[in-house]
Specification:
Rna Polymerase Sigma Factor, Chain: A; 2 domains; 9 helices
Length: 205
């Protein structure tokens, strides 16, 4: 059967009726999506293949859980499930006590929101002073600063703020974060702004 002539939703209906063949078709169809999402993330102790595997698990969950009468298009639902699975894997991995030094490059995120009177358009690492990564002493200093920031994230932010800033750190925009957290874009942007303000206040106090 030529499944390319069917919509994703029609293929899901076929799966519900007992035809398992469309499962492999949809898994292959959406594998590039999984690879694209996985390529933007870092998982401690793992590699991109590990993340792709996690993403495929999320995709399989989407195939099992999709409800055309409740959810949006299958594509949107698949993006949500894959993103959630990857986020959970990365969060669990990066929460280990000894966060590696190379994670500090993820902090190229704005400290303050637009309109913040204290904001100057600079990024978090810009505030650290000397960022000469070829100097071992500076690398140690940077590592300590990153650990301090993660400590603030863990102890000073609300669960929503913490989740939002963690997704921001790995490069997601507010629309993507809102979808994963099940919030609207405006409340997500407000959570990000509060989180950045708290980090700024705690770190530079």
């Amino acid at each position: 059967m030529n499944y390319e002539n069917y919509t994703d939703e029609e293929l899901i209906d076929l799966i519900r009726e007992g035809d398992s063949a469309p499962i492999n078709f949809l898994m292959e169809k959406y594998k590039p999506l999984v690879k694209g999402r996985a390529s933007t993330m870092f998982m401690l102790g793992g590699d991109e293949d590990d993340l792709i595997q996690e993403g495929m698990i999320g995709l399989f969950k989407a195939l099992n859980d999709y409800d055309s009468g409740r959810d949006a298009s299958f594509y949107t639902f698949a993006v949500l499930c894959v993103s959630r699975q990857l986020y959970s894997a990365v969060k669990a991995s990066n929460r280990q006590k000894n966060l590696p030094l190379n994670s500090y490059v993820s902090f190229f995120t704005a400290l303050s929101s637009e309109g913040d009177e204290d904001g100057d358009g600079r990024f978090l690492l810009d505030k650290f002073g000397d960022n000469d990564n070829t100097n071992p002493e500076n690398l140690v200093i940077a590592d300590e600063k990153v650990r301090r920031i993660w400590q603030i994230i863990d102890t000073s932010l609300s669960p929503l703020e913490r989740s939002a800033i963690e997704l921001s750190i790995i490069g997601w925009d507010s629309s993507e974060i809102a979808a994963v957290l099940g919030k609207d874009k405006k409340s997500t942007e407000n959570s990000l702004a509060r989180a950045r303000a708290k980090i700024k206040k705690e770190y530079f106090t």
